[in-house]
Specification:
The chain contains twelve helices and 14 strands. It is α/β, with parallel strands linked by helices and 377 residues long. It folds into two domains: 234 residues, Type I PLP-dependent aspartate aminotransferase-like (Major domain) (Aspartate Aminotransferase, domain 2, 3-Layer(aba) Sandwich), CATH 3.40.640.10; 119 residues, Aspartate Aminotransferase, domain 1 (Alpha-Beta Complex), CATH 3.90.1150. Bound molecules: pyridoxal-5'-phosphate.
Amino acid sequence: MNRQKIWLSSPHMGGTEQKYVQEAFDTNWVAPLGPNVNGFENDLKKYLGNKNEVAALSAGTGALHLALILAGVKRDDTVICQSFTFAASANPITYLSARPVFVDSEKDTWNMDPELLETAIIAETKKGKKPKAIVVVHLYGMPAKMDEISAIAQKYDIPVIEDAAEALGSAYKGHKCGTLGDYGILSFNGNKIITTSGGGALVTQTIEDKQKAVFLATQARDDAPHYQHSQIGYNYRMSNIVAGIGRGQMEVLDDRVKARRANFDFYQKELGGWGFEFLPEPENVFANRWLTTILTDAYETREKIRLALAKENIESRPLWKPMHLQPVFSNEIAYTNGISEDLFNRGLCLPSGSNLTDADRERIVKVFSTLFGKYFI
Ligand SMILES: *Cc1c(COP(=O)(O)O)cnc(C)c1O
């Protein structure tokens, strides 16, 4: 096995990143503030439609932590969280000594089921614990059913935190993901659609919320000549070096979205004949197709494909294991319907990098034709 590894989703630099990093060195802005941080925030703000405020942070996970604080989540509160997601959506709830209440997915987008969300809110409120926030995720870049979710959130007056870590570039009814909730979070981790090596951002509706987030992200220093603190702060601000990479990546974001969507189209065309299910894009929705996923007929088929790809040095991965099935969350309350568990059992993420070559794609499809034989349309 001497062939080069094909990764699930690897960094893809555009070429101008180092120019911004060099500028940071040349001007000695080697700090968690500076022109690249402001520039990257402005680029993101513009990209998202110029109506929101953006705070650049050290990680999407930190952005979620701050969003929960801004939403007023405190010790022993409960927070509703989509179960079908990466653990980083839920972990920050526990940083605040609050408890997650997990809600399962619906079949159309694989994201939070609005009906089950309402069931959960009613049941938890009856127990005397009205949830303090809702964390909804646009998994794999597919927007959740935001109209339904927002309507329920409004009905019960609960703030929505939109985990758009995987959905930069996706849009719902003409609005960019990350701007649809009371707070949105983005991630620029190494495997995301654009990367700063590591990093994240909090998207807010108001400048006041952004200022509060930046205050908390820079150790919550009071306005005084000495170091004075009236509340607990965090060290979550983005470095000016990292932000330089982000500015370069913003120049190619639209190309990256195009390339990921082309991967999806390619897989659907080449593999569709074997009967795998692909997640369709609902009307009025634009998905960045961060990762292309397929649903097989059974767990055994999924594993057969995954192992055959691994043998050819090709990385693929089962879909996210739902939070209500994770050992660390086994004592938490969950409202389930079996959908995310079924997706986890039968689904597979295929290599989806924007830097995949035609030769890479051919190698991947060849594994399938070796396993399943040729088909003719
Ligand atoms: C990547 C990711 C995060 C966390 O972002 P980091 O920048 O890695 O901290 C949160 N939620 C989801 C759904 C993610 O995929």
